[in-house]
Amino acid sequence: MIITKIILNPTYTIIAIAILFIMYLIIYLWHRSFLKRNSSSKEKNAHKLSRHDQNPIMSPRTHQEWESGGTFNPAAVTDNEGTVHLLYRAVGDDGISRIGHASSRDGKTIDSRSSFPVYQPSQGYGMPDPSSIHGPLTYDPIMHPSGGGWAGCEDPRAVKIEDTIYMTYTAFEGWNSVRIGVTSISEKNLRNNHWNWKKPKIISSSKQINKNWVIFPEKINGKFAVLHSVSPKILIDYVDSLSNPYSTDVILSQSPKGGRKTHWDNWMRGAGAPPIKTSKGWLLLYHAMDKNDPDKYKLGAMLLDFKDPTIVLFRSPKPILEPIMSYENDSKAGVIYASGAVVKHGNLLVYYGGGDKHICVAETTLNTLLEWLIKYGKISN
């Protein structure tokens, strides 16, 4: 009876509605505050690159035997006209890695793509001496797991210094010979598809297995700067020339060891794209794995000091890209391999191989990434 009277009484009804509204408002404001705090917490832990909605932007073409097995791990440079050039690793039916070329005016849509390899391995520079091979030169994906190939030019990186494009690559001739090769071509010839590369030069020791070497995009103190290790510390060698194929001088390096034990990058793998010069320092992308989340290549970023690039100023507390999409878990699951990056209209475009099969691109505003690194990436250990 009392409840009926309350319901029928307009005054009581208004009071009840007001109380419910106040309760709703309190809950809403609390929830909004919670989300804001939670969002701030997430921001400290993650700044993710945004994948292009048309990924992958390139995939193998079955009618092209030289790239039917995989097109991935591209180098990237921008010419003076603003066109982005991708020099990508292609694996054919024969299991040999060669280099293809594609270009894009906007950095995302492929405008042109080569119908033939623009760079091929030669003996001593990615192609084994037949006399050193026991048995026939046949391809077996199980026996030759290096990205699905058994020999060739793997994982190119490229920089433009003055009017010349320098490309480093892994000269893979079996696991007994994994070395770093470097060649070059003029920007004019690159732009006009005249593929007269300079004779390559091997810059790493025959007694070591080396991958993931990158060149700084400008000379430092008049010399070429070659970054060849990222852990336990940054190692850089400075050389007078990268063009003399007859020089026997090589750089002695060491394989990445360890990582930050309490972070996601506790197993360092190597440098990604060549360093990018920013207003805050040299931006270096790198690959690492987490022993607590194994079998996944993830991408991080660090800022290196201008005067001494062996000094790490800031480092991402969490990966900025992880292999979660189907095209990043295709041929080889759990692989994001970012070997090229350019800055276009203030955006950082990162080109990467997905699953050792496809080419993809992801981006972020460069200044936003730098601000996040500086705010949350202070080096503690």
Topology (SSEs and partners):
Elements: H1 2-8, H2 10-45, E1 50-51, E2 70-78, E3 84-91, E4 96-104, E5 112-113, E6 151-161, E7 164-172, E8 178-186, H3 187-191, E9 201-202, E10 214-215, E11 224-229, E12 235-239, E13 267-271, E14 276-278, E15 281-290, E16 293-304, E17 312-315, E18 336-344, E19 347-354, E20 358-365, H4 366-376
Parallel strand pairs: 4-6
Antiparallel strand pairs: 1-20, 2-3, 3-4, 4-5, 6-7, 7-8, 8-9, 10-11, 11-12, 13-15, 14-15, 15-16, 16-17, 18-19, 19-20
Structure in words:
- The protein is α+β, with helices and mostly antiparallel strands.
- It has two domains: 40 residues; 331 residues, 5 Propeller (Tachylectin-2, Chain A).
- The protein has four helices and 20 strands.
- A hairpin with a 3-residue loop joins strand 19 and strand 20.
Which descriptors apply to this entry?
single chain, Tachylectin-2, Chain A, alpha+beta, 35% strand, 381 residues, eight-stranded mixed β-sheet, 2 domains
Low-confidence runs of at least 5 consecutive residues: 34-43
Overall structural class, as computed from helix and strand content, comes to alpha+beta
CATH class of the largest domain: Mainly Beta
Tally of individual domains: 2
CATH topology of the largest domain: Tachylectin-2, Chain A
